[in-house]
Design a protein that fits this description.
The chain contains 9 helices and 10 strands. The protein has 253 residues and is of the alpha/beta class. The longest helix is centred in the C-terminal third of the chain and has 16 residues. The chain binds adenosine-5'-diphosphate and magnesium ion (MG). Magnesium ion (MG) binds next to helix 1.
């Protein structure tokens, strides 16, 4: 599988954020964010609850607007609204903690809906693509069931397949395993590791250190709306420089 419909060939970053600020009312939730993610890089975002990790992800596919600054995907500035937004959401797949599958659609329909509606793929093609993706995440046998008939780990793998069906350039994961029973965490992380190995550009909010070390190229540590540290996983976990990161790691390791 390819990582995107039109792979980037230049040195241009796949994701770029410059001077990005965002408030929720009086709360300054993103403070002067500067971030460039080259194509194929896997960025792990960690930090205390409320530090702005989800908001950072959500601004990248314009689920949240920003007050000021610039965000671009593969060199294209984020659209404000309209048709451009649907295209952007196809290019930037997102997987949430709560799987957000369409409850009244079968597993297969959950995966084919986007490609037929947004990518204008015909049904036969969309079915073939969906089945190959469901195979890939190990859920093909469940294709005619409804989401509620699947385990949490299975539903999350469907959510990943659904995002991949749009042939995204970037995949965002916001705590994809936090809502899962412990025995299901690895089946989801394994899919994400293989995606990372295939060269997908990924931003992953997670506290799964094993995954961060195995698949991550870079860790961003966020606190109070700022990127406080930006380092390779090994360096960050063994030798964090800020007191806030040291304090955070002492609580979770
Ligand atoms: P994290 O994902 O790191 O836990 P979030 O990005 O979800 O942090 O939230 C950062 C801060 O913004 C928190 O204080 C949160 O309560 C607040 N916040 C998030 N979403 C909204 C919203 N839609 N309206 C108002 N405040 C919000
Ligand atoms: Mg969050």
């Amino acid at each position: 599988m390819t990582a995107g419909s039109t792979p980037s060939t230049s040195a241009q970053p796949m994701i770029s954020m410059h001077d990005v600020d965002k408030h929720f009312g009086a709360l300054h939730v993103l403070k002067n964010i500067q971030l460039e993610v080259p194509a194929g890089q896997v960025v792990i975002v960690i930090g205390p609850s409320g530090s702005g990790k989800s908001t950072l992800c959500r601004t990248i596919n314009r689920l949240e607007s920003i007050d000021s600054g610039r965000i671009a995907i593969d060199g294209i500035p984020l659209p404000e609204e309209g048709k451009g937004l649907a295209q952007l959401r196809a290019d930037v797949g997102m997987v949430f903690q709560s799987f957000n599958l369409f409850a009244h659609r079968t597993i297969l329909q959950n995966v084919t809906l986007g490609p037929t509606k947004v990518r204008k793929m015909n049904k036969t093609e969309a079915d073939e693509l969906a089945i190959s993706l469901l195979k890939r995440v190990g859920i093909e046998a469940q294709k005619d069931k409804l989401p509620a008939q699947l385990s949490g780990g299975q539903q999350q793998r469907v959510a990943i397949a659904r995002a991949l069906a749009m042939k995204p350039k970037v995949m965002l994961f916001d705590e994809p395993t936090s809502a899962l029973d412990p025995e299901m965490v690895n089946e989801v992380l394994d899919v994400m590791v293989s995606l990372a190995k295939e060269g997908m550009t990924m931003v992953v909010v997670t506290h799964e250190m094993g995954f961060a070390r195995k698949a991550g190229d870079r860790v961003l540590f966020m606190a109070d709306g700022e990127i406080v540290e930006d380092a390779p996983p090994e360096q960050f976990f063994t030798n964090p420089t800020s007191n806030r990161a040291k304090d955070f790691l002492s609580k979770i390791l």
